[in-house]
Every structure is written in C-alpha cells, then in structure tokens.
C-alpha cells in the first residue's frame, strides 16, 4: 500500500520547504532526495513518480501557504490600523468560537468593517474575562487595537507566526471582557455550524442545571470541548497521570462515541427482517454514522485532533459502505493528506503531531503486542480486551513520549497506568452518559437527569483517581530533545516495543534498528550536554518576552543565571511558562544557580514564580522591596518551600564570571532605602568576564541612576561594554550622567511590539545615537544573544536579524 509512503513524503516535503524558508531550490532538493531513496529501495517507476509528485506538491503548497500575512497582503485590508496605538472600531462575522485559550477565551472573527468603512481580514479576538457566547454567523462589533500576528522570537523555540499562518489569521485583537463585544443586527443565517452552536449552548445549559463545581467543568470539557473552569490543580493531576488528552474532546472521545453509535445502529439493522439479504448491516450503520460523525465534530469545536479522528473514521465508514475492509494505515494516511493539503503548516501543530503519533503507534503495535485470536468465554474476552487496551496504551505512550519531551520538557512515567485507570472510565462512562444526558436534557430536563447524574458520579471518580496520581506519581522534567533526537527516540521506542514480541527472525532487524536509533539519540543528548558544560564562552540572552525584562546568563562550566522573568500586568501571559522555561530546557538547563529579581513589578516578576516551581534554584536575590505586590510574597514563599536561600546579594563568582551587586544600598548592605520608588530601588547587577562587563540596571530612573553613578566616590565601578537599557528606554531614564559613566558600546532594550507605553522615547534613542552606541531592541530584533569568548571578543546574534 503506497498511500502511507506518499503521505510520509508529503510531510517530508513540507518540512524540507520550511527548513529553507520555502525556497524553490529546497523543493527541488527534496524531490531529488526522495527519488534517490525510492530508487535505492527498488521501487517501481510509478511509485517513484508518486514520491516525487508528493514531495514537489508539498513544497509548492508550503510555499504558497507560508507567505506571511500583512496589512497590505491580497485579500487583507485593515485600512492601515495594524500596529496602530489607537483602537479601531471593528465589525464582522464570527467564523469560529468561542474556544478556550491559554488565558481567557477567543473568537475567530472575519472583519468586514474598520472604522465604519469597508475592510477585510481574519483575526483572533482574545477575551480575558467572561464567556463570549457568540456563535458562527453572528455579527459583532467591538473596539480594539489591531496587532500583527507575529509572536515572540527566541532561540530554539518555534515561531508563533507559523501557527497564525496555519490558521489563516491575519491579525490579533483583544478586549478585557465579553461585555465589550456587542451583537449587531438580526439572527444569522442557518447552517450546520450554526445548528451545532445552538445545540452546544442548549447542552451546556443542561449540564450546568444538573452538575456543579469541578465535575461540571470537566463534563463541559469532555463532552462539548469547552475547556474552561478546569483548575490548574486538576490539570496538574491529569498531567501526572499522563492523561491530559481526556481534558479535551480528543480524537479518542470521538472514536468512542462513534464506535458506540455504530454498534447500536448495526445491531438494530441486523434485527430488521431480510435486510441483511440486501445490504450489509455494517454499511447501513456506516451510512447513518457519517452525518452524526460530522455533526459531533462541529458540536465540539472542530479541534485538530477531532478532525483527524473524524477523517479516519470517515474513511473506515466509506470502506464499509463500498464493501471493503477498512485499513488502519490507509485511514491514517488519508486523514493526514487531507489536513496537510488544506493547511501544510499544520505539520508543526503540536496537537496534530501528538494525535497522529499516538494513532500510528497503536496501528503499528497494538495488535502485535496483544494476544492472538478471540477467546470464546466471557471472562476470557474481558481479559482479552483489557490486554488489547493495555497494548494500545503502551503503544501510544511509546510513540508520544519523545514528542511530549520535545515540546514540554517533561515525562510522566506513570502515564501507561494512568491511562489504564482513567481512559476507560472517561471514554466508556463519562462521555457517552454525559453526551446522551446533555442531549436529552436540552429537550426535556427530566430525561437528562439520570444520565447526567451517572456521568457526574463517574466524573468525580475520575477526578479522585487523577488526584491520587497527582499526589504520588512523579512528573520528570528533562532536557528537550532536538528534532533529530525526537525522531530517533520515537522510531527506536516503536521498533523496540514491536520487537518485544517473541516472533521469528523478522523481529531481529527491528531490535537492531531500535538499538541503533536509541543509541544515536542518547549519544546526541550526551554530546550536547558535554558541549554545554565545556563551553568556555559567556553567553547572555536577552529574551523576547514582550513588554518586560528577562535575561538568561550561561557561564562557563554550565552555570546558569536568570535575571528577571518578564510578565504581563493583566496576567494574560506567563513568559516563565511560555518562553523562559522552554528556552532553558532546550539549552539543557535543569538547575538555576542564581535567580535575580530587579524589582517586584509584574513585567519583571511575573515569570519567576513558574521557574521557582519547576527548577532547582540555588539562590534568589532581590532588593528586599515588596513593591506592595502580593506576588512578591508568593515568590518568597515558593523559594522557602523549595529550600532556596534568599540571603541579601553579595559579590559572587561562578568560575571566571563575577557577579557584583551595585545597589540599592541601605548602609553597608543591599536593601531598598525607605521612601525610594520601586523603580529606583531596582537591584543593579554588574557581570564581568574576560575583561568585559555587562550592566543590568533594572528599571532605574533619573534619581536611581544618579545614586548609582554617585557610588563612584567610594570606588564602585559602573563602566560596562553592554548595557541593558534602563526602564525600557522611558524618557525618565538613560540620563546623560549614566551613559557617560557606563560608556557602553552596545545597548539592548527589552520592549513589547507597539507597546502601550510607546517606549522607547525618541529623545532617549537620540542620546545613545549621539554617543555612537549600537542600539538593539527585542521587539524588532527578537531575542538578542551576546557571546563573549575568553579573549574578550564580543559577538551578537538576533533572532530576527541584527540591524
């Protein structure tokens, strides 16, 4: 069967094109490589032509769909309001939503009016508070700033703009609350999406009328795909059990529902007299199940994993209708080709990768690991199906564990056991009973009462089981493997698991290949760690965290320092979780030798709380000023709970790197003087290495800068080659006095793109220009990495290119 191979070639072609910015040369190279491999493998001419066509088509489609969206792009007209600091009056039609985002919810809106005039484009509208209960086809109006769909750029991390382009998003917008969105005009036109939305609204009301608390939130998530109200604690419990996929309408939910529906309809069709003489009851069940399958996909929000499962099941149903036996590999390949042809950049979607990896693992190994034949006795059948389910769980775990480590930097070793305990309960009781009860309750509440109560009882049992795993099962944090290591680990684990079965000689090559692949991956991991620890250079990365500060210092010998963690004033974004930790995991860092907080404003403190929980931190430095921010007390409490010392800062060396605190001073120790503003009481650090120095002044303003420079009278040195621009370049900072004393050759400003403060101030930029100081800013250049070698030579690298 060639379809799976062609699908693999299609995916490889997209990956090749992406690796070289979708250039024609790379597409041609991918075709040449594919044809060469096909020839080496001895494939026939027609097969080789198919491989080449798939690779070429993937490159062309990838090039076409990957072009960055812009305000001036064809079909997009926001009338020049993208990245304008003034809000625009926007009007359009809801295309998709609401759906739960990392913080709050979001709608996909097709805009057709901008400031009262005709416009066009599709945007993600983020809603921080409340539930925006607007369905597809409804016309809405709101006021918001329009932002380019560009995302943050940091070393080793995925470009968020790829996800925006994959989803067809041209711009971003946001409102504070659902009440800021106004419904406009009359009722929208009917259609399948609109019917599904109305059904979801009625079923949600039925669930909320019968169930409350965490059980209601879980039911809404598992049955309707509305992942809201599920606490961070519950998510942590399911993560420890390796079963976070049950917290959303995954492909497994759809498969369970479709399987039960298919079996029920087939049983009914088989009981119709003489029908089996004319048509296979399975074909009847498949024909009835297909529209139900499509409607359930619309009902639950059309997530990628659900669409994948729906396409696979549809292929199987069509096979029954035309009288053919369904094929697992063909179904997987067909679903992948349809999804990737519609949006090639979905190849880089995490949920799609995990979804397909789990299915591929089960297709390849579940039957191999499970028992042969089908026993006749009832209890033997129960054991048979339990064994088969365990084999499927082990197969999916082996296939997805490297991907989870690659994307999230963690491994849940108890996931096979957790899935055995939770998946049958959720898929066979919670979802069917919840779906049936919500559907019945939407018409007559008394009809849905008992099914929903049964679903609620099973939900509470699932929550209790997950809590046991959360309290006792470990979650191992690890270095994130690179793409080669991830592919080698996945293939090695799958082949190794398949070779466990005592079959004949055919399994020997699998075991040998598995050992080679695993050895190659482990060798690469070890080599990268050795190289990191033996690196003689000092590397300082000013991370792109939006409007905030976060820098990672990698000293010779593998020592790591984190200075500030970024953050958002409205809590809508946690850079510690989304940027700083992934960057550290990609670098192989598991221990932070020093974590320093310049001052307790949210744009510096926000991300450190997450890091303090996820890493072993050997020391925490602060100025001692709480800034009347409750998050500061929580950070100290977390440090105390993890045994992290919080002694006052003092000059410390990490091999050849010297870290010297320069202020604020209260007597002879570092502490915030009474009456000093939070910004001016920032902890100032000077790092010296190989005759060079870097200065981190936090958010000092004029008074604090004067205090810092004045310490020269007592022998304190403030000169530095690299200066982190104070207070993001505000007009009250970077005084002439400071710049003359520091005399930097390079200045790095940490800024958010088109930030609401309008930093940096033009007059501040002018002061640096007057002194011929090289000026870099993270909003334009992305993350800035400064490397100093043992000879003192300085090199600079920017993720978006250094101007």
Describe this structure in words.
Strands 5-6-3-2-1-4-7 form a seven-stranded mixed β-sheet, with no helix packed on it. A seven-stranded mixed β-sheet has the order 16-14-12-11-10-26-27. A seven-stranded mixed β-sheet has the order 17-18-21-22-23-24-25. It starts with a helix and ends in a 5-residue tail after the last strand. The protein has 26 helices and 27 strands. The protein has about 800 residues and is an alpha/beta fold. Helix content is about 50%, strand content about 15%.
Question: Helices and strands in order, then pairings?
Answer:
Layout: H1 3-19, H2 24-40, H3 45-65, E1 88-100, E2 105-114, E3 117-129, E4 139-144, E5 147-148, H4 160-166, E6 171-177, E7 182-184, H5 192-210, H6 213-224, H7 232-240, H8 251-270, H9 275-278, H10 281-299, H11 304-321, H12 328-342, H13 350-369, H14 378-408, E8 410-411, H15 415-443, H16 445-472, E9 476-477, H17 483-499, H18 506-534, E10 538-542, E11 550-555, E12 559-565, H19 575-587, E13 591-592, E14 594-596, H20 602-605, H21 608-614, E15 616-617, E16 620-621, H22 630-641, E17 652-654, E18 657-663, E19 665-666, E20 669-670, E21 684-689, E22 692-696, H23 702-710, E23 722-724, H24 736-742, E24 746-749, H25 762-770, E25 774-777, H26 778-781, E26 784-788, E27 794-798
């Amino acid at each position: 069967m060639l379809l799976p191979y062609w699908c693999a070639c299609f995916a490889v072609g997209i990956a090749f094109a992406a690796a070289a910015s979708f250039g024609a040369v790379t597409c041609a190279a991918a075709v040449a490589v594919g044809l060469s491999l096909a020839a080496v493998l001895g494939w026939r001419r027609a097969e080789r032509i198919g491989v080449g066509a798939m690779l070429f088509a993937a490159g062309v489609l990838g090039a076409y769909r990957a072009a960055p969206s812009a305000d001036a792009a064809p079909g997009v007209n926001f009338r020049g309001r993208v990245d304008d600091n003034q809000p625009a009056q926007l009007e359009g039609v809801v295309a998709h939503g609401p759906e739960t985002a990392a913080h709050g919810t979001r709608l996909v809106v097709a805009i057709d009016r901008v400031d009262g005039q005709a416009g066009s484009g599709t945007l993600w509208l983020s809603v921080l508070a409340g539930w925006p209960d607007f369905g597809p086809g409804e016309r809405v109006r709101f006021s918001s700033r329009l932002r380019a769909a560009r995302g943050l750029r940091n070393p080793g991390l995925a470009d968020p703009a790829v996800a925006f382009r994959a989803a067809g998003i041209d711009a971003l917008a946001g409102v504070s609350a659902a009440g800021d969105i106004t419904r406009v005009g009359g009722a929208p036109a009917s259609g399948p999406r609109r019917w599904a939305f109305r059904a979801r609204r009625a079923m949600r009301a039925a669930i909320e009328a019968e169930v409350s608390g965490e059980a209601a939130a879980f039911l809404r998530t598992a049955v309707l795909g509305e992942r809201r109200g599920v606490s961070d604690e519950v998510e942590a419990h399911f993560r420890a059990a390796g079963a976070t996929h049950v917290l959303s309408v995954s492909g497994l939910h759809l498969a369970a529902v479709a399987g039960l529906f298919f079996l029920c309809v087939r049983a009914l069709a088989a009981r119709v007299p003489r029908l089996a003489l004319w048509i296979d009851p399975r074909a009847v069940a498949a024909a009835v199940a297909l529209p139900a399958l499509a409607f359930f996909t619309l009902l639950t929000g059309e997530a990628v994993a659900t669409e994948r499962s729906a396409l696979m099941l549809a292929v199987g149903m069509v096979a029954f209708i035309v009288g053919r036996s369904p094929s697992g590999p063909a179904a997987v390949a067909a679903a992948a080709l349809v999804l990737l042809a519609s949006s090639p950049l979905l190849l880089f979607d995490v949920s799609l990768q995990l979804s397909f990896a789990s299915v591929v693992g089960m297709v390849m190994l579940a039957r191999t690991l499970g028992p042969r034949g089908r026993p006749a006795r009832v209890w033997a059948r129960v054991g048979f199906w339990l064994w088969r389910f365990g084999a499927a769980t082990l197969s999916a775990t082996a296939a997805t564990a490297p991907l989870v480590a690659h994307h999230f930097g963690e491994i849940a070793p108890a996931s096979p056991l957790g899935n055995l305990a939770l998946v049958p309960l959720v898929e066979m009781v919670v979802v069917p009973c919840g779906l049936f009860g919500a559907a019945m309750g939407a018409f007559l509440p008394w009809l849905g009462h008992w099914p929903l109560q049964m679903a609620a009882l099973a939900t509470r049992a699932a929550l209790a089981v997950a809590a046991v795993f959360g309290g006792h099962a470990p979650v191992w944090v690890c270095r994130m493997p690179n793409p080669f290591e991830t592919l080698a680990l996945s293939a090695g684990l799958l082949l190794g698991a398949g070779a466990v079965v005592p079959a004949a000689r055919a399994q020997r090559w699998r075991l040998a290949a598995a050992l080679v692949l695993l050895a190659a991956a482990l060798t690469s991991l070890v080599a990268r760690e050795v190289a990191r620890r033996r690196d003689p250079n000092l590397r300082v990365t000013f991370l792109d965290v939006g409007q905030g500060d976060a820098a990672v210092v990698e000293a010779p010998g593998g020592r790591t320092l984190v200075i500030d963690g970024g953050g958002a004033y409205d809590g809508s974004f946690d850079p510690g979780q989304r940027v700083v930790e992934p960057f550290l995991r990609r670098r192989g860092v598991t221990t932070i030798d020093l974590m320093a907080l310049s001052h307790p404003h949210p744009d510096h403190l926000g991300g450190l709380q997450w890091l303090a929980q996820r890493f072993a931190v050997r020391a925490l430095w602060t100025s001692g000023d709480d800034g009347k921010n409750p998050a500061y007390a929580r950070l100290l409490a977390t440090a105390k709970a993890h045994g992290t010392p919080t002694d006052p800062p003092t000059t410390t060396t990490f091999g050849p790197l010297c870290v010297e605190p320069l202020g604020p001073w209260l007597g002879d120790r570092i502490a915030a003087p009474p009456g000093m503003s939070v910004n001016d009481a920032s902890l100032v650090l000077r790092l010296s290495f190989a005759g060079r120095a870097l200065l981190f002044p936090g958010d000092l303003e004029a008074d604090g800068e004067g205090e810092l420079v004045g310490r020269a009278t007592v022998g304190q040195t403030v000169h530095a080659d690299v200066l982190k621009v104070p207070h993001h370049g505000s007009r009250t900072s970077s005084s002439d006095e400071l710049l003359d004393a520091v005399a930097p050759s390079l200045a790095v400003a940490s800024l958010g793109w088109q930030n609401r403060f309008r930093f940096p101030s033009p007059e501040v930029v002018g002061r640096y220009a007057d002194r011929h100081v090289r000026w870099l800013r993270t909003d334009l250049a992305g993350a800035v990495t400064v490397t100093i070698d043992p000879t003192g030579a300085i090199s600079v690298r920017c993720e978006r290119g250094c101007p």
